[in-house]
Amino acid sequence: MLKITTPYPYKEFKRKSVNGKRLYENPYGDPVPSVTTILDKTKPWEKRQALNNWKKRVGEVKARQITIEAAGVGTVMHEILEAWSLNEEYTGKNLLQAKMMAETVIKNIETDVNEVWGSEVNLYMPQMYAGTTDLVGTYKGQPAIMDFKQTNKPKK
């Protein structure tokens, strides 16, 4: 069972759009890009091209359908993991694929997560970036920021 503590006063962020860019307004009031936005902008051209090629191969309609379905599975997987990290019972949608993915994550980390300091919390670096992370606590005894990713092809 996880030991839940909250040593930090996590702040809420306001999301805003400036010139078509999604930004977070952190507690200091300065709008900054999300970590996801920054990572997307630094993605190698080859990876972007591979996604475009996939969309052409399967077609725009099928690609949109697959993307929406994957997002739904990912949302449920994250909800299950959030409930686990808070020692709560998950009572939402029951998607087998999401449940199996969440169980795999839990099996791989449950003995290594010693404390939970926050789940779905906002983190930021003033004047640089902001974002929401899935879990903050200790992993193998070390402070850690943890973010869960879904995949249909298991990775090491």
Please write the string of helix (H) and strand (E) elements.
Answer: EEEEHHHHEEE
**Which sheet architecture does the biggest sheet show?**
4 strands, mixed
E-strand count:
7
Structural class: alpha+beta
Structural write-up:
The chain is an alpha+beta fold and 156 residues long. It has helices at residues 35-41, 45-58, 60-85, 96-109, and strands spanning 3-4, 14-18, 21-25, 31-33, 113-125, 129-139, 142-146. The strands form 2 sheets. Strands 1-5-6-7 form a 4-stranded mixed β-sheet. The protein is built from 4 helices and 7 strands; from the N terminus they run E-E-E-E-H-H-H-H-E-E-E. The mean pLDDT is 87. Helix content is 39%, strand content 28%. Strand 3 (21-25) and strand 4 (31-33) form a beta hairpin.
